[in-house]
Every structure is written in C-alpha cells, then in structure tokens.
Design goal:
This protein is α+β, with helices and mostly antiparallel strands. The chain has 7 helices and 12 strands. A hairpin with a 2-residue loop joins strand 6 and strand 7. It starts with a helix and ends with a helix.
Length: 259
C-alpha cells in the first residue's frame, strides 16, 4: 500500500515529462508485480502521445518531440461566471495577441474554448458557486449572437493569418531581434512566398522598429502581420472592426433620417 502511494505520487510529480514519469512508474510496477514488460510499453506510449497546451497563452509551449505538431487545444477567451464575483472579461486585443504569437512561434493547430457560449442548467453548471451561464465571454455569446468587437476582431485576425498560409506551411521561421522586447519571425520559401510577424512584448510602451529597412509602429503588447513581409494587414491592438460597425450604424441612421 505504501509503495503504491509512492508510485502514484511520483507519477503526478513528473507528469509534464512523459518518459521520466513512465519509467519511474514502471519501476514501481516491477517492484510490486515482478514484471519488466510494462516498462517498455509505457515508454513506447510517450513516443505516440501528442501533448497539447491549454492556457491563455501558448506561444512558448513546446511539444514533447520536435517531430510532433504544436497544438493549442484550449485558448480561453474568458472564464467561468461565479456568484458574488465580477464577470470575467478578456479584451479582444489580448485574445488576438495570443493567437498571433502562437502562429508566429510555429503553432500548427489552434482551438478556442469556448468560441460559442452556452447554458448549463441546474446541477450541470460545473461546480460550487458557478452560475448556469457558460457564456465564457466567448466571441459568440450564450444566445448565439456575435459579441463585438471580439467576434469581428478575431474574424479579421483569422483572415490575416489565412493570407500567410502558403509561407507558413512551406518554410521554417527565422527569428530576428528588433529590440529588447521586440522581435520578428519571418517565413520565406524558395518559391518567393514570404510572411512576417512583428511582435512587441512590452505591455506598456509603443515602439518603432526597423524591419527590412522600413520603420513600423508597434503598439504595446501587439503583433503586426505582414503576409508579404512588407505591408501590415492586421495589428492585434487595433480594433478596426468596431470602428467599422460604428460608422455603418451612423450611416444607416443618416439614411433613415432622410426619409
């Protein structure tokens, strides 16, 4: 019983390192059951397992093998609502920054949790003091309506990343320092495709950086996406879609007032 408890403690202590975890666990099994076959099986499982990241930021996440994809299975655009607490809110600029940084640093697969909010009724709400609302400050709210500017801002982000598709899929990034907290990752291939991500990791100060003999303004805590390594089509800190909606609403109001 004591040996089993020690084994379980070691298993969870080293859960981030698959091979160390399973070797230690296997040695425990050998001591308890006098078998050696399990160690080979559990170590082999580590070569098959694809570990993933669940967090607010996953740009620095590394898979357990360089031959495996860098996957982000849960990007949290908000959080649970609890009785007696403030409504959780994550700004669209920060969500966009995290996604852009992930693909800048070689990300392969990205998923929002949640992208569409919902409702868990009664005792299905998920825990003590958790409300029945599972809105999660998601881009699409609990009632199925777009939450702007978050939904629109992320739509424009996805469009910008899509423009970089060919370069991202056919080249490895080259990292360039642009300052103490600024950097560029450039994806260029032999067919002439080129895409660049310029990042300012300083969360307080805007910066002017020099990239390929051109000056670029980077707001604090932002990423600029250049699908041709020249022109900025999107910056994570600039919520243009919200301005478009306001102008569209103003124009509609103006047209209605003429009739």
């Amino acid at each position: 019983m004591i040996l089993a408890t020690i084994c379980n403690a070691l298993y969870f202590l080293f859960q981030m390192n698959c091979i160390i975890r399973n070797v230690l666990y296997s040695l425990c099994c050998m001591a308890m059951f006098r078998t050696t076959t399990i160690i080979c099986f559990l170590v082999h499982l580590c070569t098959l397992q694809i570990n993933t990241c669940n967090s607010f930021y996953c740009d620095q996440f590394k898979p357990n093998s360089p031959n495996k994809p860098k996957m982000w299975t849960e990007n949290w655009p908000g959080w649970f609502k609890t009785f007696g607490a403030r409504d959780p809110h994550r700004p669209p600029q920060d969500v966009a920054y995290s996604v852009a940084r992930f693909f800048q640093k070689g990300g392969s697969v990205h998923n929002y949790y949640m992208y569409h909010g919902g409702t868990n009724f009664g005792r299905t709400s998920g825990g003590p003091f958790i409300t029945t609302s599972y809105d999660y400050d998601a881009p699409i709210d609990e009632y199925g309506l777009p939450r702007n500017p978050k939904w629109g801002h992320l739509k424009e982000l996805h469009r910008a990343i899509k423009l970089c598709e060919h370069a991202l899929l056919n080249s490895e990034p080259i990292n360039l320092s642009l300052g103490s907290s600024q950097e560029a990752d450039v994806y260029a291939n032999s067919s002439g495709g080129c895409a660049a991500f310029l990042a300012n990791m300083d969360d307080k100060n805007d910066k002017i950086v020099e990239f390929r003999n051109v000056s670029y303004h980077l707001p604090a805590w932002s990423v600029s996406i250049l699908p041709d390594c020249k022109n900025v089509v999107f910056n994570t800190a600039k919520v243009i879609f919200h301005i478009f909606l306001c102008l569209h609403a103003a124009n509609n109001h103006k047209l209605k007032s003429q009739f």
